[in-house]
Amino acid sequence: MRVPLLMQNSIDSQPGVSGGHEEGGFVLRDANGNVSVSRWQQGEQDRIILPTYQDCRFEGQEIIATLHTHPNTGGNYLQEPSETDKRAVRDDPNLKAAFYEGELVISQEKIYLIESNGQVREIGDTRIILQVDLEGTMAAVLTPDVLQDDIAVSLARAIAAANKRARDSGVDVLQSIITITQRALDGDTLWRINYGPREYIGRRGGDLIVEVDSSDSSIKQVLRGQ
């Protein structure tokens, strides 16, 4: 992969706490083995739409990789690949060629690789790799046996709280793919509830992530996937 090609996408994204937008592109290889990047149309603050492509080819050239940026550095934005990013790579029938290496996600601090199976690997520090300073730039009916299960009750309350916050943020919960995971933070356990679009092929980002304290169902933070 040619570093200047990645660098230009990062710079053009105008990374920072605000004012950035996503950039992306196809890494293409022609019949002579020459590699180039075909840029996608400029994205929005936290999402980008891909142009039409088929059979892992674009304009007659092999798509050996894809890439997009995560330009927003504010604390309410997720830096690693979102659930929609991972699903879109994993489930896209037009990105299944043996020569396709995956999708690079370039945030200010780290570069990640989404492999064709949807798994994510951290490649390394963005500034080291690019050698550039980017600075500046529920109301639910629960049966008695379920009510005895502390985890089930905690999760139900967390989903109810997260759904309300998601709706308040303009998310159509019923039309979302919801992914639930747990993580530890400062000795506490948080439910991370991710809302992604059902139609995710051909797009990246746009997720809403709500983190809820498992002990009292309070909202700890709301993040935007990109």
Features:
226 residues, alpha+beta, Nuclear Transport Factor 2, Chain: A, 2 domains, 7-stranded mixed beta sheet, 34% strand
Give a verbal description of the structure.
The model is unreliable at 132-142 (pLDDT under 50). This protein has helices at 3-12, 83-90, 126-130, 144-147, 150-168, and strands at residues 24-29, 35-39, 47-49, 57-58, 61-70, 103-107, 110-114, 120-125, 176-185, 188-197, 203-205, 208-213, 219-224. The protein is of the alpha+beta class and 226 residues long. It has two domains: 3-130, no CATH class; 144-224, Nuclear Transport Factor 2, Chain: A, CATH 3.10.450. Strands 1, 2, 4, 5, 6, 7 and 8 form a seven-stranded mixed β-sheet that branches. Strands 9-10-12-13 form a four-stranded antiparallel β-sheet, covered by helices on one side. The longest helix has 19 residues, at 150-168. It is built from five helices and 13 strands. A hairpin with a 2-residue loop joins strand 6 and strand 7 (110-114).
List the helices and strands and how they pair.
Elements: H1 3-12, E1 24-29, E2 35-39, E3 47-49, E4 57-58, E5 61-70, H2 83-90, E6 103-107, E7 110-114, E8 120-125, H3 126-130, H4 144-147, H5 150-168, E9 176-185, E10 188-197, E11 203-205, E12 208-213, E13 219-224
Parallel strand pairs: 5-6
Antiparallel strand pairs: 1-2, 1-5, 3-11, 4-5, 6-7, 7-8, 9-10, 10-12, 12-13
